[in-house]
Amino acid sequence: MRRLLPALCGTALALAMAPAHAAGNAENGKLLTYTCAGCHGIPEYRNAYPNYHVPKIAGQNEGYLVNALKAYRIGDRQHPTMVAQASSFSDQDIADIAAYLAAQKAQ
After folding, report:
1. Do the domain assignments include residue 80?
2. Which CATH number characterizes residue 75's domain?
3. φ, ψ for residue 24 (rounded to 5)?
4. Quick check: is 30 in a domain?
5. Is the separation of the CB atoms in 16 and 84 below 8 Å?
6. H-helix or E-strand spanning residue 52
7. Closest CA to 69 of 43, 48, 98
8. What is the structure's pLDDT at 51?
9. DSSP 3-state assignment of 38?
10. Which of 5, 64, 72, 92 has the fewest other C-beta atoms within 10 Å?
């Protein structure tokens, strides 16, 4: 056990210091978010079905965006349009999108 403790502590430290997700390229994210503005960029926009207010995503927390897009991609979050959009994104695409949107001024 005494030999394992330093190894376990080292592994725990490495995991704690590792980034939660890949670093995003905001320039590429800008290109990838072109269609997002069609819903998320319209003031007071409400989705037709199901009927709800579409949230603004500019200025949103980067980690939240990464987690949300990954959840849509694997089906843990359900919305037909978002599932379709997110299913085409790689992990790097998601990191790029999140980096770009998080850097934008909240509206």
Report:
1. yes
2. 1.10.760.10
3. -95, 150
4. yes
5. no
6. strand 52-53
7. 98
8. 82
9. helix
10. 5
